[in-house]
Amino acid sequence: MSNLPKIAWIGLGIMGSPMSENLIKAGYDVTGFTLEQDKLDRLAAAGGTAAPSIAEAVRDADVVITMVPASPHVEAISYGPEGILENARKGALLIDMSSITPQTSVDLAAAAKDKGIRVLDAPVSGGEAGAIEAVLSIMVGGEQADFDIAKPIFDALGRTIVLCGPHGSGQTVKAANQLIVAVNIQACAEAVVFLEKSGVDLAAALDVLNGGLAGSTVLTRKKDNFLNRDFKPGFRIDLHHKDMGIVTDAARNVGAALPVGAVVAQLVASLRTQGDGGLDHSALLRAVERLSGAQV
């Protein structure tokens, strides 16, 4: 019998499936729930246990981890008679790894405390590749003691793991991360169009740019997307649109100006209205191409 904590995993999407599988590989007993049967079958094939409901998944868990798209989804799975807070055992640790508003995390921690459940907000950065390779950056909000308990779990999922402050702090740092990533992708997309219209060897140009000060993890991860116009979703435009709403709203609340971020948020929003919301966020290239006269 393993001495590792029993884990319930709620949400087995693009990120959640490989992350839960990495915990199984690390020796954890993982019981999962999601709405898609094929994702439950995948978890079972990897050595996990598929549960028929949230209540069944969390009932005997020491740690409950959630990875769902947005604040309304976190609220839907956490509250109510069939939700996590009503069915997890007293003393359990709830780790929400979704990207949501900081206030949602603060409110969840307060509600969970009344039930004797501890909470960490722990959103991640690194995309699908980072999840598969277990090299995610994990930004955490909550109590030091709970972070210390969760740290071995985080170590099986990521490489850079930092407690950023009290509840909601992880989400605030994630919002800043999404601002930086969106602006970076937009800059890369503009450079790609400029280079191509100038007749430069694009692959060679991106290689040399990525070796200098213009280099970034974004360019490393997304270079092939740009070169091959491959926008299979690793992180969908729809989700980045949600995140840009979070960061612009949070910045407004604290009095921080985001002039470039506001422009990029509008460009992300425009992609959605043109039907590209399901594509990877590297599809910002398509917006630049349209503005530059291309038919895409």
TrEMBL record:
<dbReference type="GO" id="GO:0046487">
    <property type="term" value="P:glyoxylate metabolic process"/>
</dbReference>
<dbReference type="InterPro" id="IPR006115">
    <property type="entry name" value="6PGDH_NADP-bd"/>
</dbReference>
<dbReference type="InterPro" id="IPR015815">
    <property type="entry name" value="HIBADH-related"/>
</dbReference>
<dbReference type="GO" id="GO:0051287">
    <property type="term" value="F:NAD binding"/>
</dbReference>
<keyword id="KW-0560">Oxidoreductase</keyword>
<comment type="similarity">
    <text>Belongs to the HIBADH-related family.</text>
</comment>
<protein>
    <submittedName>
        <fullName>2-hydroxy-3-oxopropionate reductase</fullName>
    </submittedName>
</protein>
<feature type="domain" description="3-hydroxyisobutyrate dehydrogenase-like NAD-binding">
    <location>
        <begin position="168"/>
        <end position="287"/>
    </location>
</feature>
<dbReference type="Pfam" id="PF14833">
    <property type="entry name" value="NAD_binding_11"/>
</dbReference>
<keyword id="KW-0520">NAD</keyword>
<dbReference type="InterPro" id="IPR006398">
    <property type="entry name" value="Tartro_sem_red"/>
</dbReference>
<dbReference type="GO" id="GO:0050661">
    <property type="term" value="F:NADP binding"/>
</dbReference>
<dbReference type="Pfam" id="PF03446">
    <property type="entry name" value="NAD_binding_2"/>
</dbReference>
<dbReference type="InterPro" id="IPR036291">
    <property type="entry name" value="NAD(P)-bd_dom_sf"/>
</dbReference>
<dbReference type="InterPro" id="IPR029154">
    <property type="entry name" value="HIBADH-like_NADP-bd"/>
</dbReference>
<dbReference type="GO" id="GO:0008679">
    <property type="term" value="F:2-hydroxy-3-oxopropionate reductase activity"/>
</dbReference>
<feature type="active site">
    <location>
        <position position="174"/>
    </location>
</feature>
<feature type="domain" description="6-phosphogluconate dehydrogenase NADP-binding">
    <location>
        <begin position="6"/>
        <end position="165"/>
    </location>
</feature>
<dbReference type="InterPro" id="IPR013328">
    <property type="entry name" value="6PGD_dom2"/>
</dbReference>
<dbReference type="InterPro" id="IPR008927">
    <property type="entry name" value="6-PGluconate_DH-like_C_sf"/>
</dbReference>
